[in-house]
Amino acid sequence: MKANDSKRKVLVTGGTGYIGSHACLSLHEAGFEPVLIDNLCNSSRRVLPRLQELSGQSFTFYEGDIRDRELLRSIFAAHQPWAVMHFAGLKAVGESVAEPERYHANNVEGTESLLQAMAEAGVQRLVFSSSATVYGDPDLVPIAESAPRRTTNPYGQNKLDIEHMLERLAAADERWRIACLRYFNPAGAHASGRLGEDPNGIPNNLMPYISQVAVGRRPQLDVFGDDYDTPDGTGVRDYIHVMDLVEGHVAALEHLQQANGFIPVNLGTGAGLSVLELRAAFAAASGQDIPYRIQPRRPGDIAASWADPSRAKALLGWQAKRNVRELCADAWRWQHNNPQGYDSE
Length: 345
Ligand code: NAD
Ligand code: UD1
Known about the structure:
This protein is about 40% helix and about 15% strand. With about 350 residues, the chain is of the alpha/beta class.
């Protein structure tokens, strides 16, 4: 190990985003030094002073796009990162259907640009944000990493294209060490209430929508379908606390010290919760009423998805520790203290 290994730098793309910002804290706590790049297309610069407040450190931040090859070259030259955590990307499924080319250019070509810069700089450790969306509508739950991959929308196709690209790289050059983390449904916030999810406009995802109803920003929750083949008829998902998720990333990074190749790993809790169960848990944790009405199914939705998380435990020594009560309590603290997200102060 080199002398500076005690403070290994990790380039975090999408570092001011929801998951990237929490990952920066986790990296810092584990003794790594995050270096952030983000073009701020879906996040706020106001994350940075909050990270400083929570970590006691000012992290280096580059405002820029991962498709800017010159910028990437200069960042790799200046910092010689030990590894990269790649969160940058566009993630709204509906938007990806409306604008597939923009999604491909940003997500797939953006990743190509990053991989090129990494190869040139000789940095070949990567933790990539994939998604359970690559399993499409699964034949079986819980879903193992060996399940067939198929997609139902351009966003999912971007993730699949990137996974294939990463597999080809690892097959061609054994120096690549790539943890491909397939997230189930990240939710919740840092326990301090200072970092959390701050979506633009109307939230697409269930948890931020419920939080905004609880805080009075929206009148009621629309439950998309109550006629699925699930115990209460509403969709079932595997909600994983964002801090558990990012701790899984740090465990994956540590694993890359000893493993090479393309390593797909599910990050989920292994348990499913229905829309109505999550709503009830949030109402209990927040003490707020959360009115709802049943609406038709959302096109493209699946009935049930939850992870088989056994590979993460066996390979990374990681498993989710936080329960749904904690998840809702942390999400509520964030929402209550920051009703307008990062624009609240
Ligand atoms: P987010 O939108 O909060 O964070 C992504 C960040 O990337 C944003 O800050 C955005 O400004 C930045 N960005 C986007 N394109 C960029 C570009 N070309 N150059 C530089 N920065 C760019 O989203 P998130 O929830 O934190 O998701 C992070 C990653 O995890 C994404 O790749 C997403 O697809 C993946 N993922 C998220 C979920 C989820 O439910 N949140 C689930 C599965 C996978
Ligand atoms: C969505 C994306 C998926 C992505 C995942 C994590 C779609 C079709 N799929 O999946 O590609 O990987 O987020 O980011 O967008 N629900 C309501 N009311 C709401 C919102 C959601 O009832 O206002 C229900 C949904 O029907 C679903 C559950 O809540 O049953 C979870 O929805 P959501 O949070 O959007 O996640 P996914 O559907 O898993």
